[in-house]
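Hi R.,

Here's the chain you asked about this morning:
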Amino acid sequence: MKIATYKKTKEIIDKYDFVFKKSFGQNFLIDQHVMNKIIAGSNVTRDDIVIEIGPGIGALTEFLCENALKVIAVEIDRNLIPILNETLKDYDNLEIINGDILQLDIEEILKPYEGKNVYVVANLPYNIATPVVMGFLEKKHKIKALTVMVQKEVAERMGAKPSSKSYGSLSLTVQYFSEPEIVAIVPQNCFVPRPKIDSAVIRLDILDKPRVDVSNEELFFRIIKYSFGQRRKTFVNTIFNQSNFNLSKEEIINLLENLGYDKNVRGETFTLEDFSRITTEFEKLIETK
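And the predicted structure, written out as tokens:
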């Protein structure tokens, strides 16, 4: 019997007297249809390496081992390691690491698999979902794609378009590095224990190079961050109030108008291309100060 059923999951939990830890955001998937959607959406093949984050008792890991060349499962909760060693004992293409994915040396872990396509596939704990995703994107690990379960709201923000309610700095950062696609919506009743909100599976295909050319990446992301700091205010006011660029409102207005933007424009209307153009001009202006 597959692990991803309520009956089997309860049996394993009871056998090991396992206690869920809120601090680790533990919610175990019990729906095999969702598992199949994750596998299909991930594009993982028998020639590929998979990093799984937070395998829990091994429900998704089981499916991954049957569809990948090698699965590296990283679990922070040491109480789950003996359970995983038992539930997944029949898979010889599995490596289980007890550790914090945010602290591990991913490059070192992947050294033996040089030349192989590497994918991240995970039912991510809600409390670390965004840091994990951003870590893999920003550190530019040699990953083909991330297919992860996150809060539905977070998935919508990752794929949001300009001027929409969900659009923000997370949208821009994710889309700068990758092509996002929501592959499944997952209701609360697919988990034990049941979370209070729905989830979504999103695949982020990593781009060969960032979507737009940027003159100064650090400045680019600072401007993006500041421009969404006060969503109801104009771009000029948010940049002037929140940044330490030492620029007057008049200088910021002139910069925008020289680029063809209205002085009352809001940051939520800007695309990646807009922010790239603005960054180039900001850099020139700052250098003259």
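The chain has twelve helices and nine strands.

Let me know if you need anything else.
M.
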